[in-house]
Structures are given as C-alpha cells and as structure tokens.
C-alpha cells in the first residue's frame, strides 16, 4: 500500500470516527431532553438523582431504586420508571458514580448518607419480615433498632439513646407501615400461614426483592 493510499485510508477512518462521535452526542442530547420531559411528569430531578444514586449503592438493584422513588417520593412503581432510572444512569459521568463511594464535598457526603440510611431502613424492614416469618411474631422495637444500627455501620450513632431509638421506630411505622403487634402461631401453623402473618403485621410482602404495599387492615 502506497503512502497516498495510507493517508486516504486514515482520512476515511477519521471521518467515520467523527460521524460516530456526532451520533453519540446527538443520542446523548436526545436522552437528556427525554429524561427532562419524563422527570417533569414522574418526579423532580432531585428525586431522580437520588434514585440513581440508590441504584449504584445498592449494587445496581433497579427494584431498590424504584422503591426509593416510591417511599421517598410517593411515586408508583412502573416499567417506564425503571427505564428512566437506567437511562439516567447511562449518561452519568463516571466520576459522579465514583464519588458516591468516595465523596469529596459536603453535598456528595449528604447524598451518600441519605441513600445508605434508606438502604438501612429497607433492609431493617426486610429483616423484620424474616424474623416474623421464622418465629411467628415481629421482633421487639429494641431488637429492631439494634439491627438498624448494625446495618448503618459507620453511620450509626456512637451512643444510641432511647429517644433516638423511639424516633427510628416511629419512622419505620409511619414510612414503611411496620407494625410490632405480636402474632402467636398455633402449633400446626404452616409456612403459608406465617407468610400471611407477615403481610398482615407489616403491611407488605417481599416479591422478587421489591416491595408491594398492601392497604392497612382494620384491627
């Protein structure tokens, strides 16, 4: 191949590369416009930002990110909502994703703490569900608060007080509809019956690692 042919081939490759980059920029702009329109309909940009952060810090668990939007923003879970979270994640800068684990500013640290606190709440409620199903009744508020602190890890209060415990238990009751009513199982209770106890006592069921909320029953 002659030098002129090499130069011509290089110019062709450069032209194709520019065209690809142009298509990428156009697609990114289209995604941003679509996300902006979608977020106006389905929730604030801030809520979406926090949901994507939850998606990252939960190990890329989309259902958990959707639960965040449901619990924190009062939005119903939907397929479009999941796509919105995934599409937003795809255009996030890599540096922003890294900063979720290694924050460099107070604002980044606040976001990280907010998401990790949510995950501790969610996993505490899941633990209550497991304990309820295994033993036939929910753990005590003190045991639940201890599990919540364990899940918080370094973010847990160094000297947890009874007032702090009461505040967290009240939050779980109001935000997650957790009830600590005791349900004594009869001797021949089955797994299915225990599962019903869980749904009745804490007002939701775990299904495919996502939450489906049930109406509060009349006592």
Question: What is the compact description of this entry?
Answer:
This protein has 219 residues and is mainly α. The protein has helices at residues 3-42, 45-57, 62-73, 79-90, 94-101, 106-135, 141-152, 162-176, 191-202, and strands at residues 204-207, 210-213.
Report what the structure shows:
The chain is mainly alpha-helical and 219 residues long. It folds into 2 domains: 1-102, no CATH class; 105-219, no CATH class. Helix content is 70%, strand content 4%. It has 9 helices and 2 strands; from the N terminus they run H-H-H-H-H-H-H-H-H-E-E. The chain has helices at 3-42, 45-57, 62-73, 79-90, 94-101, 106-135, 141-152, 162-176, 191-202, and strands at 204-207, 210-213. The protein has a two-stranded antiparallel sheet. Helix 2 packs across helix 6 (106-135) and helix 7 (141-152) packs across helix 8. The radius of gyration is 24 Å and the shape is elongated. It starts with a helix and ends in a 6-residue tail after the last strand. The model is unreliable at 200-219 (pLDDT under 50).
């Amino acid at each position: 191949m002659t030098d002129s042919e090499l130069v011509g081939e290089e110019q062709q490759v450069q032209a194709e590369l520019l065209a690809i980059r142009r298509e990428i920029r156009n697609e990114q702009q289209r995604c941003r416009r679509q996300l902006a329109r979608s977020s106006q309909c389905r929730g604030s940009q801030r809520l979406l930002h926090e949901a994507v952060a939850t998606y990252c810090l939960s190990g890329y668990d989309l259902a958990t990110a959707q639960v965040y939007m449901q619990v924190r923003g009062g939005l119903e879970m939907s397929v479009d909502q999941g796509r919105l979270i995934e599409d937003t994640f795809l255009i996030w800068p890599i540096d922003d994703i890294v900063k979720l684990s290694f924050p460099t500013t107070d604002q980044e640290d606040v976001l990280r703490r907010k998401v990790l606190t949510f995950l501790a709440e969610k996993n505490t409620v899941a633990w209550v569900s497991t304990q309820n199903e295994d033993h036939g009744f929910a753990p005590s508020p003190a045991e639940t608060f201890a599990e919540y602190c364990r899940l918080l890890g370094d973010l847990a209060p160094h000297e947890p007080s009874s007032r702090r415990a009461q505040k967290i238990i009240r939050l779980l009751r109001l935000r997650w509809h957790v009830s600590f009513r005791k349900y004594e199982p009869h001797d021949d209770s089955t797994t299915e019956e225990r599962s019903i106890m869980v749904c009745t006592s804490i007002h939701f069921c775990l299904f495919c690692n996502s939450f489906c909320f049930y109406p509060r029953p009349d006592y």
